[in-house]
Write a structure and sequence with these properties.
Elements lengths: L2 E7 L26 E2 L8 E7 L2 H8 L7 E8 L4 H9 L2 E2 L2 E2 L4 E5 L20 E8 L6 H8 L4 E9 L2 E2 L8 E5 L4 H10 L4
Parallel strand pairs: 3-9
Antiparallel strand pairs: 1-3, 1-11, 2-3, 4-8, 4-9, 5-6, 7-8, 9-10
Amino acid sequence: MTQLILFNKPFNVLCQFTDSEQRPTLADYISIPHIYPAGRLDKDSEGLLLLTDNGKLQHQISHPKHKLFKYYWVQVEGAITAQAITQLQQGVQLKDGISKAAKITPISTPPSLWQRIPAIRERQHIPTSWLNIGISEGRNRQVRRMTAAVGFPTLRLIRHTIGHWQLGNITPGTYQLIKNPVLPLLERKKFLENGKV
């Protein structure tokens, strides 16, 4: 039976189960055997991380060719401009090439947002802005590099959606277990067979 875990990864936790430097890892929160992360989330990022014991599902979630959209709540330094949003939507030049078009929406503070420990460093007299950013790529620290490239450094980054899986009401450091989840590609195949795509 396939197991899928939706975990709300806290800030400063590594996306692995062991660490030679004794830093916080997934093992501090999850004790289910034989599960592995499907993709990763940087130590200084928070939010939704998927883990599974099914190699096929892990591949479908994490491999770039499947293009599962991932959505992030992103707090940036400064009052975001329409020009910067347009640049992010169209793709920006990064060291490893131009980013693909992204889905960018300015938002107010996300609902039910928890306090980060430690809190972000905010500079007095400099406002911050929140964005909902959706990308289908998975480059290293991509969202942070994208916002920095248009002049708005990321202060806080929280992933809330991967494909059709959402963080929902899962609190930091806890998880939801789904048994026998539907595989994303199998869903797409059914749609194609039924002529709905």
